[in-house]
Amino acid sequence: MGSTSPSASHDPTNDEEACIHAMELLNGFVASMTVKAAIELGLIDDLLAAGGLAVTPEELVAARPWPRPAEAAAAADRMLRFLASHGVVRCTTEWRDEECVKILKNCHRALPANGKVIVIEFVLPESPEPTPAAKGAFTLDVVMLNRLAGAKERTEREIADLAAEAG
Q1: How many C-beta atoms lie closer than 10 Å to residue 12's C-beta?
Q2: Which InterPro entries match (predicted)?
Q3: Residue 104 burial by CB count (10 A; 0-12/13-18/19+): exposed, middle or buried?
Q4: Taking the mean position of all CA atoms in its chain, how far away is CA 18?
């Protein structure tokens, strides 16, 4: 029932590329959802309020009510370690433009004199392209459309506009 044409034969290189692409998509989703959860739980605000001083996960969770207090410190610690390992704040996908600008302004204010905000994101091409990267970005854009109100992938120009508006 299967085709014996060369184009239909099994190519392990394509499997490996597809697996890597799937992991990149998953990693981006997990990172962005972790940032979103940390913001919603107030962890980011509490870290900023500490003014650069070291704060333990136990101190962070003591400041707010948590659904499962016994697990809160460990959960906060794992989330913050994950975010620290990425070294970036993802804000351009999961948020409306106004929220992105607010987050980027807060990042900009918190920077040292020569600091930089680094945004790592899938970038939508200005027009559709038949490349794996473009397909992945457009797929994520449709997922955002269906799952998160106002969320979307953006073109390089749209990201630059958000950064310019934020300062």
Answers
A1: 7
A2: COMT-like, COMT_C, SAM-dependent_MTases_sf, WH_DNA-bd_sf
A3: buried
A4: 21
| Contact status, residue 126 vs residue 155, Cβ threshold 8 Å | yes
How many structural domains does the chain have?
A: 2
Q: Are 104 and 77 in contact (CB under 8 A)?
A: no
Residues pairing with 49 in the sheet: none
**C-alpha span between 101 and 166 (Å, rounded):** 5
126-136 per-position pLDDT tens digit: 887 788 777 77
**What residue type is assigned to position 91 of the chain?**
C
Sign of the four-CA dihedral 23, 24, 27, 32: negative
pTM assigned to the model: 0.44
Structural domain of 150: 88-167
Is residue 101 domain-resident?
yes
Supply the DSSP symbol for 92: S
